[in-house]
Write a structure and sequence with these properties.
With 680 residues, this protein is α+β, with helices and mostly antiparallel strands. 38% of the residues lie in helices and 12% in strands. The strands form six sheets. The chain has a six-stranded mixed β-sheet with strand order 1-2-5-4-3-6. A five-stranded antiparallel β-sheet has the order 9-10-11-12-13, with helices on one face. The two termini are 50 Å apart.
Length: 680
């Protein structure tokens, strides 16, 4: 394994952002709840806590209901369900949660929540009719399904067949074993209940994450005896809570209880971490300010007096943050180390890096002190303005605070590491759901690597049966341990989302129905090649595909992509079939090819499908112009409005105009696209 990598660079915090001050509190709350402005304004009582904190019993009940909905809905398109999990909006209060679901989802909710003795559903749940809707109740919890009449509710209950479980009215007492089931469900979610409830109360924070794949995807997983909530809306699993992965203002963060046994001590945490991971660098406990020196080393800084003094100040602030319930969510989801990981877009969802709680307090120093600190860490202090030095000092304090919180919130069930002869730390554990191993390494240079090794996946054979989930540089070996342990939570569940690098095929193909349709394939796809993107590819590819065979001759051959479909798929990063697979010699509208696309969660929109099916149906070697004319003729002889009905996503008149105006002459494609497709 290579032990060198691009040196670790602290994430640029871009100053202390004031998003929560720039956006009105009502708008911030609406961003999380989806409420109408009038409702959000009427409910807002505390601008420091825009989402009310539920009572412990309310949170436990909401968690059980939400956990059940997550399992029942699975990965789904909110455009087809009226919102994530069918929720259009909700109004959170301390002692109840008002939920407005799409009318079409009423039967789905009843089916999901109805308890069955095999364990599905919500044990002990009862309902009662109210003037404002249907109340779902558990001991100490009330959830109102707003604007649903008793008539509509009872009609939905009657639609259930005799052999289906149902929800029982409030006057039905608990049956004999129901308390046992209630206790089992509460126990299962005990450590995750507050996190689940907080996510449900901010459910519309998911909305921007569905714009790429179009899906909401949450699930829970066990990792080293801890239960975690995973979000994979963008087809990449992350354990980060929504409020930090989206870097929302602190006013939207939940207030939750501090985990037992009580607030963590950051001084003890940094010393323990450094002693475990790098004992040769651990300061003596009798040294002056040993914890501050340890924090400097973990963060990759020198231990000169100015930096040690700054680290001591940071540890004071971290101590207050870790004891404050308003910031207790830093303990959640594997700890604050997840926010110290370096992501390709800055953060997991590409927003600004999430400032740690306490960032304003830790940088609230005299301008001269900030400049002095900035001068110590700046690469060219003599050529830097005083304002820039102060900004650099602020960023370094926030950087130190990140690592103090990461060390202090490291899960208590941390991994057992072994040390190689060259000093590299390694941890290996078996995969939970298939034969294979999860391996973590952290080198003395601070490079960490998290990878999976598993056999039996044909598309992984060319990559040594190994999936590398994350390989990055950290400021120290101790920091690398923290980051690797956090990344391992996601790596353990990453296989269903991983694609091989050559053809973008899923390593674990999805289960597929025997007769998929274009609509069902689009519904399940992570990526859909739409006509706008398809048209732009045609502009580039027509000069490179003078001649191409038809589908019957094989889309993909041993020397690479051959047909127009394969060339476009390769360009767009769509999965292609292998030689010998049934889909490799059929057109894109055939059941075999649709099954191939569905298995790899990809799709072509109906118009692209019609064009490519016709163009590739021509047998033998044909010119691009011949295939283009065949595809265009198929579109022009099709009722495009009727074809649009097979699309899950909205089809606008602009798209239909683009298709109707497509030129016959391939030489005119670029001019046509530039003048038509790019027009506002």
């Amino acid at each position: 394994m290579t032990h060198t990598l691009t040196p670790y660079t602290p994430r640029q915090q871009r100053g202390l952002r004031t998003t929560d001050k720039a956006v009105p509190p009502v708008a911030l709350r609406q961003m999380a709840t989806g409420e109408p402005e009038e409702t959000a304004r009427a409910e807002l009582t505390d601008v420091a806590h825009l989402i009310p904190t539920p009572t412990p019993e309310q949170a436990r009940g909401e968690a059980r209901i939400f956990h059940t909905l997550i399992a029942a809905y699975g990965r789904h398109r909110p455009t087809l369900t009226g919102g994530p999990f069918g929720i259009r909006s909700l109004t959170p209060r301390c002692d109840e949660l008002v939920v407005r679901i799409a009318p079409s989802q009423l039967d789905q909710w009843i089916d999901a929540l109805a308890f069955r003795e095999e364990g599905t559903g919500v044990a002990g749940l009862r309902w009662a009719a109210r003037l404002d809707g249907i109340a779902l109740t558990l001991p100490g919890m009330t959830m109102i399904l707003a604007d649903i009449s008793e008539t509509d509710w009872c009609a939905a209950l009657r639609r259930r067949s005799a052999d289906q479980s149902s929800l029982m009215p409030h006057w039905i007492p608990q049956f004999r074993r129901e308390p046992e089931y209630i206790t089992a469900q509460d126990t299962e979610l005990a450590d995750l209940a507050d996190h689940l409830s907080a996510t449900l109360r901010r459910i519309r924070l998911l909305d921007p994450l569905t714009r790429i794949s179009g899906h909401v995807h949450l699930f829970t997983t066990h990792h080293h005896s801890a239960l975690h909530l995973i979000e994979a809306c963008e087809a990449t699993p992350t354990v980060l809570p929504l409020w930090t992965s989206r870097s929302v203002p602190p006013a939207l963060w939940p207030t939750v209880p501090i985990p037992a046994p009580g607030p963590a001590d950051p001084r003890t945490a940094v010393l323990d971490l450094l002693t475990e991971a790098e004992p040769g660098h651990a300061p003596s406990r009798t040294a002056d300010r040993p914890a501050a020196g340890a924090l400097c080393h973990i963060a990759g800084l020198r231990t000169d007096p100015v930096l040690v003094e700054a680290a001591e100040h940071v540890l004071d602030v971290a101590t207050r943050i870790l004891a404050d319930p308003d910031h207790a969510s830093v303990y959640a989801a594997g700890g604050w180390a997840g926010n110290c990981r370096t992501y390709p877009e800055g953060t997991v969802h590409g927003s600004d890096p999430c400032l740690p709680p306490g960032a304003e307090a830790v940088t609230d120093l005299a301008e001269t002190d900030l400049q002095r600190l900035g001068r110590h860490v700046s690469s060219q202090p003599s050529d830097t303005s005083l304002a820039h030095l102060a900004s650099t000092g602020q960023e370094e304090l926030v950087h130190l605070l990140d690592w103090a919180l990461a060390a202090a919130t490291r899960p208590t069930n941390s991994l057992n590491w072994t040390r190689d002869t060259d000093g590299t730390l390694q941890h290996t554990q078996p995969l939970a759901d298939r034969e294979g191993t999860l391996t973590l390494t952290a080198t003395t240079t601070g490079v960490y690597r998290v990878s999976l090794h598993t056999r039996g996946l044909s598309d992984l054979a060319d990559e040594d049966d190994t999936v590398e989930w994350e390989r990055e540089a950290a400021p120290s070996q101790s920091a690398a341990v923290l980051l690797a342990e956090h990344a391992a939570i996601e790596a353990a569940v990453c296989l269903p989302f991983q694609r091989e690098h050559h053809k973008q095929r899923l390593l674990l193909p999805a289960a597929v129905s025997d007769e998929p349709t274009i609509r069902s394939v689009i519904t399940g796809a992570d990526y859909v090649l739409g006509f706008f993107t398809f048209a732009s590819i045609l502009c580039h590819i027509h000069e490179r595909a003078d001649f191409a065979p038809g589908a019957a001759d094989g889309h993909w051959r041993t020397d690479g992509p051959a047909t127009l479909t394969a060339l476009i798929s390769d360009w767009a990063g769509l999965p292609s079939p292998h030689p010998g697979e049934a889909a490799n010699t059929t057109t894109v509208d055939s059941p075999a090819y649709l099954r191939h696309l569905a298995a790899h969660r990809a799709a072509l929109d109906p118009f692209v499908t019609r064009y490519l099916a016709a163009s590739d149906s021509l047998a033998g070697m044909r010119t691009f112009e011949e295939r283009h004319l065949a595809g265009l003729a198929a579109l022009r002889t099709t009722d495009l409005s009727a074809l649009a009905l097979t699309e899950v996503r909205p089809v606008g008149e602009r798209l239909l105009h683009l298709i109707r105006s497509m030129p016959q002459d391939p030489a005119q494609l670029t001019a046509w696209y530039d003048s038509t497709a790019t027009r506002p």
